[in-house]
Write a structure and sequence with these properties.
Layout: H1 2-18, H2 23-26, E1 32-35, H3 49-52, H4 63-71, E2 81-84, H5 96-105, E3 110-114, H6 121-129, E4 134-138, H7 144-148, H8 156-172, E5 179-186, H9 194-203, E6 208-213, H10 222-228, H11 252-255, E7 256-259, E8 265-266, H12 286-290, H13 293-303, H14 308-311, E9 322-326, E10 331-334
Helix pairs in contact: 4-5, 5-6, 6-8
């Protein structure tokens, strides 16, 4: 009990200190820019906000807009990581390999997260040759029932084959990158398949396995939660829990930026629907918009977790969001 009180006191002090942080601290280059190739998806996963609650217009980021953002860092010694993920399936945007290559050639590290349904042999070769640094490929169980119970529209056998072929293609091309991480959502189906999935991932030459805990979502109705509650793991250690310590600040708005497909800015990785209505970057460019007074004011609110979005965040307020297994060293570490 004393330890918990001490930890909470630490976060309380951080909250008070956060009001003293000058705006100049926020006027910077982010460590990561999440670029949304598209907010369209070919699946209908049971708890995904993309099809449950998203009201934004669907579309695809233009290559020209992407290049304009990257070009702003041409003379900068600091190059943010460019992450191609967010609300949709990145591989639906045919310009993705060219976007990755353009960012890599400009000195940025790159990351893609994909449901792997479109990871054909041709797409795999283009992505690997683009210079991509790391990729997450999603398989939510090691049986047809386990995977397809959540990934509606996905075919287990095809996705498994695509992942295996991707690893083979990387080896055939003599590349060490991208590092390949198998991402697994822990459900009542997959919680008993973890050892089997880890061994399979190791056998086919993957680098990591990321076991993620299942969130029923702060945006879902009670009816939806009741309907899909059967997916929650039976084992308590694999369930996502609200932290007993309230973390009073969130570093994401300080170091992370989101650019939606149409050029609108988003606050952070959970702002799926542009809830805070940040401005578009097309008029004044990314850096000038990101560091504008209006955006810095909103990012400060996010930093202090004072928005409605922050209050219901299942990532920033959770104790257990999963863990990562390093297949090379067989290490397990918390995914925080």
């Amino acid at each position: 009990m004393k330890f918990l009180k001490a930890k909470q006191f630490f976060w309380t002090i951080l909250e008070k200190a956060s009001f003293l942080i000058p705006s100049a601290t926020f006027r910077s280059i982010p460590a990561e820019i999440i670029m949304e190739p598209t907010n369209a998806c070919n699946l209908r996963c049971l708890l995904c906000p993309t099809h449950l609650i998203m009201k934004r217009e669907r579309g695809f980021m233009r290559l020209e807009l992407f290049k304009e953002v990257i070009d702003e860092f041409g003379n900068s010694s600091k190059k943010p990581q460019i992450s191609f993920n967010f609300a949709g399936e990145p591989l639906l945007n045919k310009s993705l390999p060219e976007m990755i290559k353009y960012a890599k050639d400009s000195g940025h590290k790159t990351f893609v997260s994909t449901n792997a349904t479109l990871l054909s042999e041709e797409a795999a070769e283009k992505i690997i040759l683009s210079g991509l640094d790391s990729i997450h490929v999603c398989l939510d169980g090691f049986s047809k029932e386990a995977h397809e119970s959540y990934r509606k529209g996905s075919v287990f056998e095809k996705v498994k084959e695509n992942i295996e072929n991707f690893a083979k293609k990387r080896e055939a091309l003599g590349r060490k990158n991208p590092l390949i991480c198998l991402q697994v959502l822990l459900t009542s189906y997959s919680e008993n398949q973890m050892d089997e999935m880890t061994q399979w991932a190791r056998n086919i030459g993957l680098d990591f396995v990321n076991f993620k805990t299942l969130s029923l979502g702060s945006y879902t109705s009670k009816e939806t939660k009741d309907e899909v509650g059967y997916l929650l793991p039976k084992s308590d250690k694999f369930k996502r829990k609200i932290s007993s310590i309230y973390k009073t600040i969130c570093r994401n708005p300080l170091h992370q930026a989101v650019v939606y497909w149409n050029g609108d800015l988003g606050l952070c990785c959970v702002d799926f629907d542009n809830a805070l209505k940040l401005p578009n970057i097309k008029t004044e460019g990314f850096l000038k918009t990101y560091n504008s007074k209006k955006v810095i004011k909103l990012r400060k609110l996010g930093f202090r977790k004072e928005t409605a979005l922050c209050k219901g965040c299942s990532i920033g307020n959770a104790d257990n969001v999963g863990f990562i297994v390093d297949l090379k060293y067989c290490d397990k570490k918390d995914n925080q």
